[in-house]
UniProtKB/TrEMBL annotation, chain A:
One of its GO terms (molecular function) is oxidoreductase activity. Gene3D superfamilies: 3.40.50.920, 3.40.50.970. Its cofactor is thiamine diphosphate. SUPFAM superfamilies: Thiamin diphosphate-binding fold (THDP-binding), TK C-terminal domain-like. This is Pyruvate dehydrogenase (Acetyl-transferring). PANTHER family: PYRUVATE DEHYDROGENASE E1 COMPONENT BETA SUBUNIT, PYRUVATE DEHYDROGENASE E1 COMPONENT SUBUNIT BETA. The keyword Signal does not apply. The lineage of its organism: Bacteria, Bacillati, Bacillota, Bacilli, Lactobacillales.
TrEMBL record, chain B:
It holds the Pfam family E1_dh. CDD domains: TPP_E1_PDC_ADC_BCADC. The pyruvate dehydrogenase complex catalyzes the overall conversion of pyruvate to acetyl-CoA and CO(2). It contains multiple copies of three enzymatic components: pyruvate dehydrogenase (E1), dihydrolipoamide acetyltransferase (E2) and lipoamide dehydrogenase (E3). Keywords: Oxidoreductase, Pyruvate, Thiamine pyrophosphate. GO terms for molecular function: pyruvate dehydrogenase (acetyl-transferring) activity. Residues 54-345 form the Dehydrogenase E1 component domain. Its EC number is 1.2.4.1. This is Pyruvate dehydrogenase E1 component subunit alpha. It catalyses: N(6)-[(R)-lipoyl]-L-lysyl-[protein] + pyruvate + H(+) = N(6)-[(R)-S(8)-acetyldihydrolipoyl]-L-lysyl-[protein] + CO2. It is an enzyme of class 1 (oxidoreductase).
Amino acid sequence: MAKLTYIKAITDGLDQVLQEDPKTLIFGEDVGKNGGVFRTTQGLQDKFGTDRVFDTPLAESGILGLSIGLALTGWRPIPEIQFMGFTMEAVDSIGGQMSRNRFRMSGDVSMPITIRTPFGGGTHTAELHGDSLENMFVGIPGLRVVTPANPYDAKGMVISAVENNDPVLFMENLKLYRSMKDEVPEGHYTVPLDKAKVAREGSDITIVAYSAEVNEALKVADKLEKENISVEVIDLRSLSPIDTATIFASIDKTHKVVIAQEAQKMAGVGAQVASAIAENDIMSLDAPIGRVAAPDSIFPFAMAENDWLPNADDIEAKVREILNY
Amino acid sequence: MAANSKHVVDFGHIKSTMSDPYKKPVQLIDENGKIVNKELFDRFSDDDLVNLMEKMVWERALHEQTMNFSRQGRLGFYAPTYGEEASEMGIAHAMKKQDYLFPAYRDLPQLIQHGATVKEGYLWSKGHYQCYDYVRRGVRAWIPQIIIGAQYVQMAGAALGIKKNGEKDTVAYAFTGDGGTSQGDFYEGINFASSFQAPAVFFVQNNGWAISVPRKTQTAAETLAQKGVASGVPGVQVDGMDILATYLVAKDARDFAVAGNGPVLVETLTYRFGAHSSAGDDPSRYRTKEEEKPWFDKDPLIRLRKVLTDKKLWDQDKEDKLVAQYKDEFKQAMKDAEAAPKQKVSDFLKHTFEVPTPDVAADIEKFQAKESK
Ligand SMILES: Cc1ncc(C[n+]2csc(CCOP(=O)(O)OP(=O)(O)O)c2C)c(N)n1
Ligand SMILES: [Mg+2]
């Protein structure tokens, strides 16, 4: 097994699906010769040819509309939207079209489309490059929204996403792209798209997080362990649907929960987790639900990103508050 | 493709002179039923002419009967096609079974000609899932698109799919209106198909109005056809009240695309004789009788009826009989549509994902319990 970065793990996963299924196609802006602006598709055009891996004109609605037409004619598209902020150009293709087609056809038409897109703060990018827009998308029935927090999951989940017959919005965290390495098996393996993972076991409090916030939560767990506080960390992995069973099992044990996300607080993922707990498992808790999220402002100017993004310190403070309730 | 006539659809010529789009609409018979292009007219056999007339009579009868049903409160959203018969049926006549059709809401007649049933059209209007049974039957047509422009980008994908599948003699079509040409997706779809040199024919049925907004508000461009030119796609304007012209242009555009020359954009000049939709639109709020009058004189049925009558291929009795026969069929279709089974929310839930997620599965159970009461 090789130690791979998150980005290489995704490349590896894409290489795998291109090999296994001749109907898979990768396309988007700069994904061909240039291998993507982050090199996620590096080498794939050389290996699989320009019929399978190709650049498109620069238009996001066009790219996702193209995906729908290709899916209708028997292909399995893996379009890339260069940054998640640009998905706003293609919201109709996602929410108005591809996610509705199975329903429209009573299950007789599939839209096996995996939209890959990088997101996430902390890398001081230009405006609308770092925004976490999952809260906009998780409210769309028929669309899966997933995001891996480590290289192992990244490869296994990208393979699962491509093999899935429903549209999947596959969010890749920019900050994680090159900041961590994992043992990543060669060849084909999958990580389920709708199962949360217990990233670390603990017994005193549960932190529910996803993407980069999982690492922040793990830092908190490490630190508090020295004080004999045992923190369980759950990595959601799938933001829609949300694996509530894993969350409930954890809080039945810890009786305390903090939900951490990088996105703004209004509605969305953390709010949904809180509501699911309140609706189904509130009696397990012996303290209020704690939430850590970005403030409900516009994603900040790059130089102020670190002041705005929720980090380990914020999570730690919230965990202590809930523990001392 | 024929040559040497100023009315000839010479796409090759258009392509090589992109800056000079075709500005004189293609026409074969004028509004008085006078044959203005004998050379092109002679490409039609008597059978062709009768067949085209029958299709227009069918569409007009469909419109009339459907408006009746609508007034009786038996339908939901319906976009009248009155006045656009030459545009819609001329193009439909050029489509082949293997072609993919991406219609908009006003294109039910073409969709039905391509293999959907009138009953499915009525179910679409009423809002019942069986309206898309034609897709299940393998008819190569997608849904009548409500989001204006979306069909253009999706069709570009299907055209690329056709090319990648190596299917010969197959094209993809999409329809939009004059208002639709202002959408970003309109340009993106044409431009994508152009970039990939995919077998695509894009149609704009310019009926003068986008609900209450006139054509001139959409753009200062002289023609809508020329909007293809900037994408490297030949654009052709055709008299959309002349079914012989719309058919020929659609056919030549198809030939051009299947020959591997890339997409074509066709603008048909037509007119919406009636309201925008059956949902309370009143054209007198935004247009005058003076504007409408010359268009009614261009009625596509009048001119072909005259040509056929002169050739002794048609008479009123024949037309009346056909209309009566068609209307009987539509009445039956309506009865069939009204007999469609009650829909179940649990079924909708089942088709949200291929495999229901736990939350969806819980809702399925909940609704099934309700439905079994
Ligand atoms: C994206 C979108 N915007 C607005 C509408 C509402 N709408 C429905 S039809 C219409 C006018 C369309 O005009 P045109 O494209 O000329 O087609 P026509 O109805 O005349 O055939 C409008 C504004 C819509 N359906 N979709
Ligand atoms: Mg119009």
